[in-house]
Structure formats: C-alpha cells, structure tokens
Amino acid sequence: MRSLQGLKVIVSRALSTAPSTPVIATKHPFKVDLKAGKLYPWCSCGHSKKQPFCDGSHKKAAPGLSPVRFTPTEDKEAWLCGCKQTKKAPYCDGTHKQSYVQNYTLETNQ
Q: What GO MF annotations does this protein's record show (predicted)?
C-alpha cells in the first residue's frame, strides 16, 4: 500500500440546486414593539422557533435563505409578517389573508 502523504484531497457536499422557499410559519402577523437604532433579524424562512425573528434555523432547513436585517429609525409598534409571503418584508402586507395561506397546513414540528 502506497503512502498518500502530501496529497491534497478536496471533499465537497452535494447541494440541492433547487432554491429554498419559505414555509408559512403562522397565518397571522406578529405585533412587536421596535426600538430605534436596534438591529433586528426577521426570519424569512419560516423555520425559526423564535418567530418572527431568526434563530439560525435557515442554515440547515433553508440554506438558500437568510434573515432580513433591519434597523428602525424610530421607536414604533409594527406588524411583522408571520406567513413569510409578504412583498414588503419584514412588514405584513396582508398576504396572510389569501386563501393559499389560510388553506396551508402548518408544519407540526415547529
């Protein structure tokens, strides 16, 4: 048996080429009090256990997605999207009222 000293071996993982899509975390928005100047990471994948904010779950569950980071310029109350289908992330735009969201079966492992 020959020695392979000095041989550089590159190992790569096979990744899915399909883009990650968010799952519907809940069928309603979250009312939150935001503080001016604070950085918030809104969960865009729907897998976080700390909804509506990111807990890093996207790294395994939806590697193609990342949180939407935002910093409010003033203290305010806001409604953050819970269905992850909004066109105005991280804010709710009412998409959760659509039939495809309301008819969605929520994952029980969340």
A: 2 iron, 2 sulfur cluster binding; metal ion binding
What is the domain partition of the chain in residue ranges? 30-102
Binning the chain into helix, strand and coil, the percentages to the nearest 5 are: 10, 15, 75
Given a contact cutoff of 8 angstroms between Cβ atoms, the answer to whether 25 and 85 are in contact is no
Q: CA-to-CA distance for 68 and 77, rounded, in angstroms?
A: 18
Question: Can you tell me the distance from the alpha carbon of 31 to that of 77, in angstroms, rounded to the nearest whole number?
Answer: 7
With residue 79 as reference, give the H or E element that holds it. Answer: strand 76-80
**What backbone torsions phi and psi does residue 86 show, to the nearest 5 degrees?**
-60, 150
| pLDDT tens digit at each of 110 positions of the chain | 444 455 444 443 444 455 689 999 999 999 999 999 999 999 999 999 999 999 999 999 999 999 999 999 999 999 999 999 999 999 999 999 999 999 999 865 44
